[in-house]
Design brief:
Length: 320
Amino acid sequence: MSNIFFNDFDFTDFWDDDEYAKEKYLEPEPSDELITSIENELGYKLPASYIELMKLHNGGMPNKNCFPTNEPTSWAENHIQITTIMGIGRDKDYSIGGELGSRFMIDNWGYPDIGICICDCPSAGHDIVMLDYTRCGKNGEPEVVHVDQESDYRITFLARDFETFIKGLVSEAVFDTSEEDLRQTLYTIEHGDFSPEIKKCFEKRKDIDFDTMLRGLFLSITKEKGFFALHADKLSEIAYGAQFYLLTLNNSITTKEALVEQYLPLVALSNSSISLGGYAAFFEDWFAERIKQGQIIWDKGFVLEIYYEDWLFKELSAFK
């Protein structure tokens, strides 16, 4: 195949071709018939540079997986990160025509119907990279954008075309400030102020040292992960439970929507990265599971069931 794009680009070590990547993402070289079929299915003409790259290596996990940005995103202050570049095909779930591919993300995750989802991100669906055909039309040369589901699908421009995007990818080592970030996070947890919202809750139970226990819990979470984030692990679930309990001391929670609205500013230390951030869905999943298990019940509003509350306080006491 005669290359038109990427002539001056070195793809040595660009792809992480371990067995997992090959099994989950790498498709055979796409035929012209398959490409046309996928284009018809998705309703957009694929960029020629994307087709060329996929004929060389049809989907996979790049080693260069970060792209610089001029504005903060849900991932970082100055870049986004991707996990995969989706291949052209239907055999692999995460190819653009696959079961969990572009149409799935638009139809089931609510991403804007502006083009084609092209790269997954580490947030497991909560942000994504898309080919954006808004300016060029369905047969034109799309821009590459980052779309953040947890920020009301905020769109951040990345590159004028797919080739520019690929050439602009860099190793995450370029942005590695993890050691300094970890030191700063631990210092903030130990010495920073909790948000005004949660301080009001502390006042309702002065007999319990929630300040000390939550700091201890947050320190454990951070040391275990190397950064602060609440996901679906046990320590995160203890944090969800503790802060849910505190919230119910000052508020009557009657709907999930009201709960999420009031909960988001609660999980925070003021003016810092110690917050729930863009991952409210993890908390919503926790809330739904607790109701299903009978651990959150209705009593003029949602509250913790007494035995679950006792378990929670026993777990928290380990962080005094």
